[in-house]
Write a structure and sequence with these properties.
The complex is a heterodimer of chains A (503) and B (477).
Chain A (H helix, E strand, L loop, with lengths): L4 H12 L4 E2 L2 H6 L17 E3 L4 H14 L3 E4 L15 E4 L6 E5 L4 E4 L5 H9 L3 E2 L11 H6 L17 E7 L5 E4 L19 H4 L11 E8 L1 E2 L8 E2 L6 E2 L6 E7 L3 H14 L4 E6 H5 L6 H10 L5 E8 L5 H15 L3 E2 L6 H4 L2 H6 L7 H4 L1 E10 L1 H18 L4 E9 L4 E10 L5 H18 L10 H5 L6 H12 L17
Chain B lengths: L1 H11 L4 E2 L2 H8 L13 E3 L4 H14 L3 E4 L16 E4 L6 E5 L4 E5 L4 H4 L7 E3 L11 H6 L15 E7 L5 E3 L23 H5 L8 E11 L4 E8 L2 H13 L6 E5 H8 L3 H10 L3 E8 L5 H15 L15 H9 L7 H4 L3 E9 L4 H15 L6 E8 L4 E10 L4 H20 L10 H9 L2 H14 L13
Parallel strand pairs in B: 2-4, 3-4
Antiparallel strand pairs in B: 1-2, 5-6, 6-10, 7-10, 8-9, 8-10, 11-13, 12-13, 12-15, 14-16, 15-16
Classes of the chains: A alpha+beta (503), B alpha+beta (477).
Chain lengths: 503, 477
């Protein structure tokens, strides 16, 4: 049946009102590409942009999509390329009107939010109540709900689990338009618990990354918050990248340690995890540590030159989770660093980094990574034990150094859940004007190498499932059956989570 | 049917397909009183994953129901073959395949019991324990069924890292990074993906979606130094705020609240001691184990203790290191399985649990509900045990009521069924969330009140188990 653009427009207009639907080419152009630089090549205009204000409107839009067999895409902060239309006449659901924090339960440490609530917004309200949640590396303006569904990594994953663990009750509009409520939310307005009854259907929402809108639209979510012993608000002066933030010195302390070899550093990571100290723990390449500090390419290159003899650091951040814990953390860290032939950089030399802590907490310094080159992307990203991540890193670095010498690369390794496993990203910095094609080629090679060598990739999505699946026990076949079952008309952001047009 | 049994004998070997009347009878019912018994055709005891696959393939081909079972004891009707069929008893798959001190995990087969698993303590490692699990209970079943763990750390409510699952078609699905098996770049420890979070889908499924044959699970280092503190009160309400504070500051390892009956029953060596012990205890006891960890242990314990005492200053109930000389027994209670006859059976022979997830601030209210309904129905409240387990640093809690009774006494049996049903109904109406609905009464109520959830579960079930052979009749299937 041919799609009648005008009919769909009128139905959407009827649903949300004339002010909240658009097919103006100028508006659609703004929704044709996401913030992800590699996504620029995939640019395609959607058919409609619609701004629902309630779950009922979302249901109606999803039903319109089903009836007319056109795709819809729910978008949060519009960062990832999965938010870009891949089919004509796609309906983009932008949640700018659903931006409310519906509840913060101080005692039980959770918040119920709508899709457009950002980390900065929620964190500010949470801190007033003695709670917080770390900002993800994508920045404080990221949608909390979208990020909890999609990625959910943040700087404190050593102590506070990856956000896949922090999703509680959920209201979810299925690809059919029906509402599904998960956990305690299924039995009233209490969203404090996410699993069950029986099998935990949060498992359908996300793996390491989520279904990326391919299994419907989450319209309400409760997320876990964590105890905060810091101030109710941060007072700031100046403008990024010169911004200065006031910060109580006894709330958190940052340490840098250097080691004679990466093996020694990884041994120290294991020991820190074993001792269960600290809030944030990273093994960072010097390039990674310097990139957020630099305000320009020149400054970045100068910093690299100044630190050329140091390959990598352990960055450890202690947090005042209880009155005396920071003193104990310091003593144990010192002992571990010494036992592993390392050296703790004197406090006075890390003072400038210490000043960056509040920015890490509030807005994520990783956003500064674009400063030096303008382009950045993850070349390889894996999760496994720290020892295995080290093996993977060595191999992938050698490949980059041999084949892509023009890219500056950097890496970080984070132990997760106090070292039960870890996560690593090896990224490239590039000039998006002159090196975009090469960066895309490099990334495509990476995913195929992961499949061939059976390395466990964290960010598999869409087409990657069919590349990795045969090396990963053919899970993609089961995933495809689930997509077909829940989304028989294939309207919920195809080809996510997997392309069902393939057999 | 005898033809089927013969074929299974060919697959597994004669000694591994059991049909003796006593064996069939022992699998036809369990210790729960809620659902009718049913006799299985036979019991299969595979020893390898390949044998499990062949058994499942056989059942799928002939559309014969099968019920996976791993533990030596069953209390909630999960393994009673509602539609008959074959019991796949995994108790002979009981190897601790490996343990990894450096990465804090162990790979275990489905039949590994808590009694076996706690042997890791001799190697300086600490398995994650639920409260006084029966020694013959399968560790994997306990984790898969999301039984609450005594350490309410943030990430501990999901102790499973990766799993090997035999699907109802006989194919194998490996979850998380075990999907890449075999790989020189993996130790199979990442719980998420590939694609979806399969671990979560299989949890709480009571074997209706597949047979989990082995898993890699989290373990910890055994603390070198511990110190127990007790907060005792006759009012549950008085313990709630201290409990929130302890959890808020991330202090301590094990932490839980027990009423006098549960605590006395656990600590008593014999039935006659229960009442004596109970008289010595306050109505409620909050137990916290402060730990010295593994580095600078004395300093760690000192830091925890000073912080702990400081944050509890000003509360009406003060902490004490003494509990009527029972301190050592309490530490054992926290770090091992329960030996011999299960503690809940010691007093009257049988018990019926009612458990749900709620928040700590609501626990006094639910206790009042149970008190009121029990007294209306003539069930004495002083015969109700209660256990409260904070989860995820106090963000929620598991609340468990235990009704003790004697199943040989018909009058008591009838009363217990009536009391159970009424209590479940009232608690449900009052907002208690039954995330693990066992037995037909509770599961029917749970899924009827969330029809969309039940419908999606059925769709998922159709994807995994198109012939509905896996433990039919459970959940909403």
């Amino acid at each position: 049946m041919p799609v009648n653009h005008q009919v769909i427009y009128e139905l959407l207009e009827e649903t949300v009102g004339p002010d909240y639907v658009s097919d103006d080419p100028a508006v659609l152009e703004a929704y044709s590409r996401t913030g992800w630089i590699l996504g620029r090549k995939l640019k395609r205009r959607p058919g409609f942009v619609v701004l629902p204000s309630s779950v009922q409107e979302v249901q109606a839009i999803v039903r319109i999509a089903n009836k007319n067999k056109v795709p819809f895409i729910p978008v949060g902060s519009f960062l990832h390329w999965s938010c870009q239309a891949t089919y004509p006449e796609t309906i983009i659901l932008d949640f700018k009107r659903m931006d409310k924090i519906l509840k913060i339960d101080e005692k039980n440490k959770y918040a119920v939010i709508e899709p457009y609530v950002t980390y900065t917004q929620l964190q500010a309200e949470a801190m007033k109540r003695g709670l917080w949640l770390p900002v993800p590396s994508s920045g404080g303006n990221t949608s909390v709900l979208a990020n909890h569904l999609f990625c959910g990594s943040h700087f404190a994953m050593h102590r506070i689990p990856y956000y896949a663990r922090a999703v509680l009750g959920v209201e979810w509009v299925l690809p059919s338009g029906e509402i599904l409520k998960l956990g305690s939310a299924g039995y009233g307005d209490d969203y404090f618990w996410g699993e069950g009854p029986g099998p935990d259907l949060r498992g359908l929402m996300r793996g390491y990354v989520g279904a990326l809108g391919g299994l419907g639209v989450v319209t309400k979510m409760a997320v876990r918050l964590y105890p905060w012993t810091g101030p109710e608000a941060f007072h700031c002066r100046g403008v990024f990248p010169e911004k200065v933030v006031e910060f109580p010195k006894d709330l958190a302390k940052l340490y840098l340690a250097i080691f004679p070899s990466t093996e020694d550093a990884v041994n120290a990571l294991y020991e820190i995890c074993r001792a269960e100290i600290g809030m944030s723990l990273h093994l960072l390449s010097t390039t990674m540590a310097m990139a957020p500090m630099a305000k320009s390419r020149e400054e970045f290159l100068n910093l690299l030159e100044a630190f050329k003899d140091i390959k990598e650091f352990i960055l450890f951040m202690s947090f005042k989770t209880s009155p005396r814990v920071m003193e104990y953390d310091r003593k144990v860290l010192q002992k571990i660093v010494e036992e592993n032939r390392g050296y703790l950089i004197p406090d006075e030399m890390v003072e400038s980094l210490q000043e960056g802590i509040p920015e890490t907490i509030r807005s994520a310094v990783s956003m500064r990574i674009l400063n030096p080159m303008g382009g950045y992307d993850v070349f390889r990203s894996w999760a496994e034990s720290l020892d295995k991540l080290l093996d993977q890193l060595k191999q992938a670095k050698a490949f980059l150094e041999e084949k892509y010498r023009d890219f500056i690369h950097f890496y970080y390794m984070i132990p997760l859940e106090l070292g039960h496993y870890g996560h690593i990203e090896l990224s490239i910095l590039y000039d998006p004007i002159t090196q975009l094609d090469e960066a895309m080629e490099c990334q495509n090679i990476g995913i195929r190498q992961d499949a061939e060598q059976k390395m466990y990739v964290t960010g598999s999505a869409g087409p990657a499932h069919d590349i990795l699946g045969p090396s990963y026990g053919n899970y993609q076949l089961l995933l495809r059956k689930i997509k077909k079952k829940l989304d028989p008309n294939n309207v919920s952001n195809p080809p996510y989570p997997i392309d069902v047009t393939k057999t | 049917m005898s033809k089927s049994v013969k074929e299974l004998e060919q697959i597994l070997g004669g000694g591994h397909v059991i049909r003796t009347p006593s064996a069939l009878s022992s699998y036809s019912a369990d210790k729960s009183c809620l659902d009718p018994m049913n006799v299985p055709i036979c019991i299969c005891k595979p020893r390898t994953v390949e044998e499990v696959q062949k058994t499942v393939e056989f059942c799928n081909k002939h559309k014969i129901p099968l019920v996976p079972s791993s533990s030596g004891v069953h209390f909630y009707g999960r393994t009673v073959p509602k539609d008959g069929g074959i019991i796949v008893d995994l108790s002979e798959m009981n190897r601790i395949v490996k343990f990894d001190d450096r990465n804090k995990n162990a790979t275990i087969e489905a039949g590994v019991t808590f009694s076996q698993f706690e042997s890791l303590k001799e190697k300086g490692l600490l398995p994650l324990f639920p409260l006084c699990a029966p020694e013959r209970k399968s560790v994997l079943t306990s984790y898969l069924e999301r039984e609450p763990l005594l350490v309410p750390k943030l990430e501990y409510y999901e102790p499973i890292l990766t799993m090997e699952v035999v699907l109802p078609t006989g194919e194998i699905l490996r979850t998380g990074s075990a999907a890449v098996k075999p790989s020189k770049f993996a130790e199979y420890v990442v719980p998420f993906g590939p694609g979806l979070n399969w671990n979560q889908i299989f949890q709480g499924a009571q074997g209706t979606l597949g047979i989990v044959t082995s898993a890699t699970v989290k373990i910890e280092h055994l603390p070198k130094l511990d110190k127990l503190y007790f907060l005792s009160s006759n009012s549950l309400e008085e313990l709630v705020d201290p409990l929130y504070e302890i959890q808020r500051y991330l202090l301590g390892y094990e932490c839980l609240v027990l009423n006098d009956l549960d605590l006395a029953t656990i600590l008593a060596d014999k039935k006659s001691e229960i009442e004596v012990l109970r008289r010595k205890l306050a109505r409620w006891t909050l137990i916290v184990c402060l730990s010295g960890g593994v580095k600078l242990t004395e300093e760690k314990l000192k830091q925890e203790e000073e912080d702990f005492l400081e944050i509890l200053r000003g509360f009406r109930v003060g902490p004490s290191t003494k509990l009527e000389g029972l301190e050592e027994k309490v530490l054992l209670m926290l770090r091992q399985s329960y030996k011999g006859e299960y503690w809940k059976q010691m007093w009257k022979g049988d018990f019926q649990d009612i458990f749900f997830v709620t928040t700590l601030d609501k626990t006094p209210h639910y206790f009042e509900v149970v008190e009121k309904i029990s007294s209306e129905l003539g069930y004495p409240m002083d015969e109700v045990g209660c256990y409260i387990q904070p989860l995820v640093r106090g963000g929620a809690c598991h609340m468990e009521f235990t009704l003790f009774y004697d199943s040989n006494n018909d009058k008591q049996l009838k009363k217990i069924k009536k009391t159970y049903e009424k209590l479940v109904e009232c608690l449900f109406d009052g907002g208690a969330f039954f995330s693990r609905p066992y037995g037909s009464f509770l599961s029917k109520m749970t899924y009827q009140r969330n029809l969309a959830y039940a419908r999606i579960l059925k769709e998922v079930k159709e994807v995994f188990d198109p012939n509905n052979i896996m433990n039919p009749g459970k959940l909403c299937f």
